[in-house]
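JOB MANIFEST
job_type = single_chain_structure
chain_count = 1
residues = 367
[input]
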Amino acid sequence: MNPIITFIIGFVLGLLAYYIIHLLRKKEEEQRMKDSFKAMSLDAWKDMIPFVNEALSKQLVSGEKELEGKKQLIDQTLNGMKTDLLKVENLMNNLEKDRENKFGELSNQIKQTAEQTGKLQQTTEKLNTALSSSQARGKWGERMAEDVLRLAGFAEGINYAKQQKNEAGNKPDFTFTLPKNLKVNMDVKFPLDNYTASLNAAGQVEKENYEKKFLSDVRSRIKEVTTRDYINAEENTLDYVIVFIPNEQVFAFINRMEPLIMDEALQKKVVLCSPLTLYALLVIMRQAIDNFKMEATASEILKLLSAFGKQWEEYTGCYEKLGEKISAAQEEFNKLVTTRKNKLDAVVNKIESLQEASHLNLPEGKE
């Protein structure tokens, strides 16, 4: 073998052995250092145990005090929470009671609404029945008018008459009596056949045709009323006649579709009234009647006051004369109880004195 290679191999093996020996020594030193540090740590820990125990004791006492304070704070917080919970519970109970009351009220309202809806449905059915028959419709119109009259305070036989025949032989449905023997007539029959048919129409064209026929019926009715002598100066009627439309919806429909019909009616001295407008008209009429009666009563009161004034003057004259006579009698009475009485007493005293003197001068035994 080449000496150089042998040298290199020997050199490498020597370096490797040195490195291995160095590592083994280093591990032994590290182990000794660990054992030494461990021993030192145990010794230091043994020396620190009393200080640690004392610190732990102080920390424990401090922790107990802190825990006690926190416990008290927690107790106070819990008490406050209990109070708040009681308030919340009371509030919830009150809310529950209020909810039950509100629920009961709501149930009653729903029940009342259902009853009113049922009544409204019945009324609607009756209305449909009334509108389907001209005879029933006429009676229904009279009933509606009577309800409005009763609501306004009118009484049959006092404020109005029904079916009273006029000189021409016609019978207006209602005749209202006014002051100074004036009257105003009202008719409650109104054509509603085509209006009802328009409500039940199948299509828009058919509906519009029935509506046009209905408006034509209204104009015809206005013209018909003016030919029945409901306005007659010889019977002291007013220059207007009332035509009652017994349904607000129909009245509104006429105003919406043909507003000029109202003006045309007024030009012909015809007043179209719905239940609401009739009530307003009757209230004004009733107020006018009351004002007239009050005016007439005031006139009578003024006459009576004038007569009372004359009688009062005569009464005061007689009273003054009687006072004068009483004063004169008082003066005479004062004279009687003073001057006349004093003079009479003087005479009586003299008489009594003379009697006593004569009694003293009598001889003994002559008494």
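[summary]
The CA atoms of residues 20 and 359 lie 196 Å apart.
The chain has seven helices and five strands.
exit_status = 0
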